[in-house]
């Protein structure tokens, strides 16, 4: 077989030196729940609002597109608890426009996350059909998934966490699941129609209307620790749900991991980094593929004004298979690989971007043939005084930050840093074909 000629632009970076890197481990504080089913049982047993479930009721349970620790186990446990109370549960995909804004696509997203009818033990009723339950004062339509609206009761389920594009009393969690997730594509489009900075206003207004006019019984929210593990479960009554969710958001913010840059006691990373290499992006890691709360590369100009970390160059190497082609957020990288571009499904990405009105998220940055050339392109253009001593970090994704690789130039500042340990010697970057091959401990990519 004739070997393809190397593009000329690759020749421009092939002499760029690659730094030696050392494996490091971060230590975070946090509790962990080891038995999700028992935790759901105990949480519902202690919640008075669970008594709203009556025998014979049809109950819609929401399931979104975000990665949630123990997601299938938690949904199966909620199904079992509802059925044990004599009701008839089913799951509704509640993910706005995700999954290409089709019923089949949203079912496929859940399957990629391990949530199937066989696993959870009840039907999944997926449809993009909605009903209008009212209009806001400005005339904006408030939409509700038809299957959920036709049920005798609705149980909201979602992870509570900081949003990637705005700050508000309620961000990603039960309020957003109710307003945008259950609004399907049409509801999500309406909520985003005035721009990303206005989204929290409409999340609040739409969620309050739905709590007043729809049969929401209660919500179940999860909190995760910095290791992407289930930490706490909150059961919140529909009455006063938005206010009750707010302190849980603050807990979630305090639990977030961070890159080891800047003061160790600061709430997030701060300062400058020459190069950040992210092995995988994807919807299970963040709604924007890479969580900007970690990278500080926000899509909103308002959020960028509050960024404390400046990453000169960011290279993203792969789109997670579980993202089902949704490469939303690749645009926040400076360079990606050909295999990420090949996995990029415009149907999924464009539906997401058009609905959210954030078209920037659908763009494709510079594409290099493989991991080596992508990393070299990032280093060559990072602006470091001496690129042979570039300050570089490599992470598996923006959700799991226990382990990371640091370039040799960063080791002096990390060796004495509280909460971090350099556990491996500096070693050359190794490549297996097109991929960076220095291994991750455990189940990391």
UniProtKB/TrEMBL annotation:
GO MF annotation terms: lactate racemase activity
Domain LarA-like N-terminal: 46-193
Pfam families for this protein: Lar_N
InterPro entries: LarA-like_N (IPR018657)
Protein name: LarA-like N-terminal domain-containing protein
């Amino acid at each position: 077989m004739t070997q393809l000629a190397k593009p000329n632009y690759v020749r421009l970076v092939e002499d760029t030196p690659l730094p030696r890197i050392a494996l490091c481990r971060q230590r975070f504080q946090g509790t962990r729940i080891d038995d999700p089913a028992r935790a759901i049982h105990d949480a519902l047993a202690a919640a008075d609002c669970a008594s709203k479930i009556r025998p014979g009721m049809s109950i819609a349970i929401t399931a979104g597109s975000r990665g949630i620790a123990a997601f299938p186990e938690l949904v199966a446990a909620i199904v079992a608890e509802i059925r044990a109370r004599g009701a008839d549960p089913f799951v509704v995909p509640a993910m706005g426009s995700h999954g290409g804004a089709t019923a089949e696509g949203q079912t496929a997203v859940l399957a990629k996350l391990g949530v199937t009818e066989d696993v959870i033990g009840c039907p999944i009723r997926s449809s993009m059909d909605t009903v209008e339950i009212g209009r806001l004062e400005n005339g904006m339509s408030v939409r509700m998934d038809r299957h959920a609206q036709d049920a005798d009761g609705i149980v909201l389920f979602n992870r509570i966490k900081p949003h990637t594009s705005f700050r508000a009393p309620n961000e990603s969690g039960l309020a957003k699941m109710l307003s945008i997730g259950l609004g399907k594509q049409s509801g999500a489009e309406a909520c985003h129609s005035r721009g990303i900075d206005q989204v929290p206003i409409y999340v609040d207004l739409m969620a309050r209307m739905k709590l007043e006019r729809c049969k929401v019984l209660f919500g179940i929210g999860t909190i995760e620790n910095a290791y992407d593990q289930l930490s706490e479960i909150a059961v919140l009554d529909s009455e006063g749900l938005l206010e009750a969710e707010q302190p849980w958001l603050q807990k979630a913010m305090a639990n977030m991991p961070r890159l080891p840059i800047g003061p160790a006691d600061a709430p997030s990373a701060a300062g400058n980094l020459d190069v950040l290499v992210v092995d995988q992006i994807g919807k299970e890691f963040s709604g924007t593929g890479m969580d900007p709360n970690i990278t500080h590369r926000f899509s909103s100009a308002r959020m960028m004004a509050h960024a404390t970390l400046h990453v000169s160059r960011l290279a993203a190497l792969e789109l997670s298979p579980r993202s089902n082609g949704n490469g939303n957020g690749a645009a926040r990288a400076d360079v990606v690989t050909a295999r990420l571009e090949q996995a990029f499904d415009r149907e999924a990405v464009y539906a997401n971007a058009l609905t959210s009105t954030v078209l920037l998220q659908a763009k494709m940055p510079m594409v290099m043939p493989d991991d080596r050339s992508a990393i070299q392109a990032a280093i060559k253009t990072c602006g470091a005084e001496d690129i042979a001593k570039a300050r570089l970090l490599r992470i598996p994704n923006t959700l799991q930050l226990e382990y990371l690789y640091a370039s040799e130039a960063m080791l002096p500042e990390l060796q004495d840093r509280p909460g971090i340990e350099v556990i491996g010697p500096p070693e050359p970057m190794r490549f297996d074909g097109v991929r960076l091959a220095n291994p991750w401990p455990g189940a990391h990519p």
